[in-house]
Amino acid sequence: MLVDYGIFGESDVESMRGFYRQFLRKLFDFPILSPPIIESSIPQTESLKMENHQIEIATIRHTTLNVNGINLHVAEKGDSGPLILFIHGFPEVWYSWRHQILDLASRGYRAVAPDLRGYGDSDSPASVTDYTCFHIVGDLIALIDAIVGVEEKVFVVAHDWGAIIAWYLCLYRPDRVRALVNMSVTFNRRSSKRKPMESLRALYGDDYYICRFQEPGEIEAEFAEIGTERIMTEFLSYRIPKPLMMPKGRGKDKGHPLDAPISLPPWLTQQDIDYYVSKFDKNGFTGPINYYRNLDRNWELNAPFTGAQVKVPTKFIVGDLDLTYHSFGAKQYIHSGEMKKDVPFLEEVVVMEGVGHFLQEEKPDEISNHIYEFIKNF
């Protein structure tokens, strides 16, 4: 719901702001900060724009569906029209798609973004083995069945780990996907000779973040010591175009003091960080990190799909400052034509100049337009 501030008095506006702050606090379960009374560095017009956007976010519906034996929290907007399934990555939740949900719903689509298992307000099974690619894709197929029916196709838009899951979804069940917009992580051609973790350790060493994630409980303990807010701020602000290294231990002797200030990028507010922190504080990092602990297991499970192609109309988007664009030989894979061999219906590749990993938040309008311009053709 949008408010035309021009037709209200100042006291009316402040009263309405107070009402919506209370509404947002109850809906999102995190504190909505009051506008500063003292002079603010944010121009008033920008402040009003941000507050209007939070009011729009409050119009997104939230439900919980029991699918595939677990409860999934789902954010949704749009009552009719073709369904777009948004799949988030790490360390994200449905909220990373807030801009695209509002935009695409306004263009006549039904936008649906679940918290994947282990994340946010969805269930977090205890076992590492409950987070294989088959489990996650099974959740999404059951979710699609529950929302639109067992024979319907949907559009899929995904990022980071969500992109990995989306590749699997299209590989296993192309009959359920009308078209795919995937971001950051390319299709990963399965090697029959070497497991993923063996390759990653050989390429980047034990300090590479995915290698650090493998021992259950170890990285969780380190994250707990550092604090969720610091971890989320560091991850969501990361824009270094090279592989992410996380040496054991933190402090000045490691060249990474914990008290070093971090400035939020302009596309993230403290409210955004607070929301992410509230959700990762709820269930912790174990569920999300268990996705990484199944890389070798997924490799084993996907033996029957060695050499299989993704035969779904696809658009791929990546930022030229994205760490994934500079890892795993991704740049060469994309531009040499090898990716086209594995994804024969790859119709567009977009490399966004000066954009980092969390591109749907950094450039929300551009990403929404990229999605719309592609899926409107199907």
Automatic annotation (TrEMBL):
Alphabetized Pfam families for the sequence:
Abhydrolase_1
InterPro entries on file: AB_hydrolase_1, AB_hydrolase_fold, Epox_hydrolase-like
Matches recorded under SUPFAM superfamilies: alpha/beta-Hydrolases (SSF53474)
* UniProt key word Iron-sulfur: no
Highest taxon of the lineage: Eukaryota
Its keywords, alphabetically, are: Hydrolase
Q: Does the keyword Signal apply?
A: no
* Regions crossing the membrane: none
Looking at the record, the residues that make up the AB hydrolase-1 domain are 82-185
Regarding protein family, the annotation reads: Belongs to the AB hydrolase superfamily. Epoxide hydrolase family.
* Protein known as: AB hydrolase-1 domain-containing protein
Species whose genome carries this gene: Citrullus colocynthis (colocynth)
